[in-house]
Amino acid sequence: MLKKWTFFKNSGISFKTLSILFTLKFIVGVSVYYVYTYYYTDRNTADVFKYFDDAKYLYENVYKINPLRFWKIIFGIQNESSEIRYNLLETNYWFKPHSSNIFNDNRTVIRFNAVIYLFSFGYYHVHTLVLSTLSFIGLTGIFKAFFIHFKNQKKELIIACFLIPSVLFWGSGILKESILLFGIGLFVFAFTQFLLVDNKIKYIFLILITLGLLAITKTYVLIVLLPSILAWVLIQYLKINKIGLTFLIINLSIITLAFNAKKIHPSLDFTGNLKYKQQDFINVARDTKAGSTIKLGILDDTAWSYIKNCPEAFLNGLFRPTLFEIKNVFFSFSAFENTILFFLILLLIFFFKKPQKEQLPLMYFGLYFTILLTLLIGLTVPVLGAIVRYKTPFMPFTLSIILLSIDFKKIKSKFF
């Protein structure tokens, strides 16, 4: 696939390098299994097993007995019927113990693994291979989107897209993050191509598919992306010169609209949903006795509760856990990664290299994606271990922007 598929052949990365990167990714994907088998030994609380185990149940107890019912479950047809609901009640994670009215994305990953189970026949690492491959495709899509405008900074982009430790670990296992990276990466690639090429039909199709995938995997990620997508389209087709100002105005306008949408219709209570999502996370952390719980500012129905909690939420979402919060070997990896990120941001401040105008839309797209998703995570997630994992989708964008905006030549001339 890496050698023959045009998507990879035209990526700007050699076949040898792609092979090394993919092999590393699959090895890390396999290691996730062993970490949760021999280090974190409670299988019932491990996401890397819960989706696989429920997929196994659907295969053994539904597909083998009634294939039509199995496919109804996969496509969401008549899932409220008594027969199908009986089967679903026998799964462990189809229904969340604490659930707001936000879309239950567990079901997407269970369905996905149930389909893979048809040809994996229960071999866990067939699932690892499929999910690692999809994630790798997504990360290559992010690389290609940036490489169009930064052809002379290939090494920086390879590090940012493929070699971030947390992205390698959480984005290579049987987890939502692998599917999420696939959807985001292919979307960004298709969207940048759509804006650049004349033959747009195939990219329109790919954009719609990936947006649909994001909607059923992590709806809030799609919501966070929408303002910047709109801003980029307006800049491209209205030939707007004030790129940074356009992104700022569109994002602020849509955030303001979100805070007031419930006045239009009660079902559009986005801030209320966020409040309930925070409570869901707090309840789960309490019930599972999570060992790395942090205290969050409680959200209510006022805009002020969000505004006052945003600074701390941003710091929590981007830089925690810190070196002072290391509790085990895995926290140490995350803490060192966050420390390196902090120092890279300092280098960015003191040795900033101004991007060219054609590079700005993609940079602002990644910047606002990082900021908004960091705030969402920091506002709602009270467990440091979960924060590390939920950062995975925006980290390739974050590190790409930082590495591409640091003037390393200036640093070299100053200190070396």
List keywords for this structure.
416 residues, mainly alpha, globular
Question: How would you concisely characterize the structure shown here?
Answer:
The protein is mainly α and 416 residues long.
Which sequence of SSEs, written as H and E, runs from N to C? HHHHHHHHHHHHHHHHHHHH
Proportion of β residues? under 5%
* Helix/strand/pairing category: mainly alpha
What is the number of strand segments?
A: 0
Report the uncertain regions.
none
Biggest sheet overview: none
State the end-to-end distance.
43 Å
Average residue-wise pLDDT: 91
- C-alpha geometry: globular
Count of runs of 4 or more consecutive helical residues: 20
The helical percent reads over 70%
Structure overview:
There is one protein chain. By secondary structure, the chain is mostly helical. The protein has a domain at 227-416. Helices cover 71% and strands 0% of the residues. It has 20 helices and no strands. The chain has helices at residues 6-9, 15-38, 47-63, 67-75, 82-89, 106-120, 124-147, 154-162, 165-170, 176-196, 201-217, 219-238, 243-260, 270-287, 303-319, 329-350, 360-380, 384-390, 395-405, 408-415. α7 packs antiparallel against α8, α7 (124-147) runs parallel beside α10 (176-196) and α11 packs antiparallel against α12. The longest helix is centred in the first third of the chain and has 24 residues, at 15-38. The protein is globular. The mean pLDDT is 91.
